[in-house]
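Reading a protein record of the kind used here takes only a little practice. The record below shows the convention in full:
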Amino acid sequence: MDADGERYSVDIKKIIVGGLVSLALSLSCIWIIMRVTGTESLRVNISAIGRSTILLSLLMVVASWVVDSLKLKILTSAMGGHIRVWDALKITVAGSFIAGITPFDSGGEPLKVYFLHKRDLGIGSATAVVTLGALLHGISRFILWLVSPILLLLTGTSLVFSSTAKTTIAIGVFLYVLLMGLVIAMALWPQWVEIVTEKLFGMKAIKKLVPQSLVTAILDKVETSVREFRDGMSRVKESGRHAVIALLLSVLYWLFVISVPVLLVRSMVPQVPYAQVFFVTITVYLIMAFIPTPGSSGGAEAGSAYFFSSILPSRLLGGFVIVWRIVTYYFTMLAGAIVVAMETINWSMNKSQPSRVE
C-alpha cells in the first residue's frame, strides 16, 4: 500500500471541511458588505460589468495558471527532473485549490511537493522547487508593489488612504518582508532543519516515546532531503537562466492576476485610472498573504471592499467583490476540486487493481 496515497485519501475529509468553512466565511462577509454598503441592485451592478469583461477575466485567470505551470516546469528542469506541461498545470491548479481551503494558504506547497515526488523527483529536490517558486512569487509581488507608486507619479494619479489603511499597509509590508527573509534564510541555510530535528529527537521525553530505530530512520530521511534540497538549489545557482526566466514568469503571473480587478473596476467606472486600480489591487494581495482564514476568505472580501472603497462608489462594492471572488477564487476552487477528485479516483482505481505476479 502507498502510504502517501493513503494519507492523500484520508485528507479528503479535511478538504471538505476546509471548503465549507471557506465558503461560509466568504458568503457571510459578502452579505455583510452588501448590507453595509447598501447595494441597490446587485443584478444591475453585475450586468454593468458585461459578459465579455467577465469572460476575459476568466481567461486571465487561466493564463495565470498556465504561466505558473511553466514556471514549475522550468524549476523542475533546473533540478534535473522532467515534468510535462499538462502535469505541471494539474499540480498548479490542485495546489491552488488546497491553498484556498487551508489557513495562510499553507496546504498548497506540501501538495505540490507530494505530486512532484510522485513523479520521481526526490523529496529534497521537490521541496527546493516549491520553496524557490514560492520565494519568487513573493519577491515578484513585492517588486510590483514597489513599482506601483512610480506608476502613480508618472501618470499624475493621486490616491488618498485613511490613517487606518496606512497603518494596515505598513504592518502588512513589515510582515511580508519578515516572511521573505525567513524563506530566503531557509533557502540559503537548509541545514537548520537538520539541527532542529536532531535537537527535537534528542529530548528525553521524545526518546522515551519514540524507538531509537525510528529516530534513526527519520534523521536519515531528513539528512537525505536536506542534501537533495541543497543540491537542487546549487543546480539553480549554476543555471541562472532558469531562475531568471522563473522570476519573469512570476511577474507575468501577478500581472495576469492584477488585470482582473483592473478590468472589472474599469468596466464599472471607466474614468478610474489604470495606475490607481493597479496600486490598490497589489496592496490588497499583499495584505491577503497574512489573513489566517482558509483561502483568506472573509478577510479578502472585507479587505477588498475597504481598499477599493477609495475608488468605487459604495453601491458598486458588493457587485465588484462578488464577481472578483467568483472569477479569481471560486473558479479556481472549482477547477482545483475537479483535478483533486480525478487524482483521488485514479489512485483509488490503481489501488483496487490486483498486482500482477510475473
Remarks:
- The first helix runs from residue 3 to 10.
- Residues 149 and 337 are 37 Å apart (CA to CA).
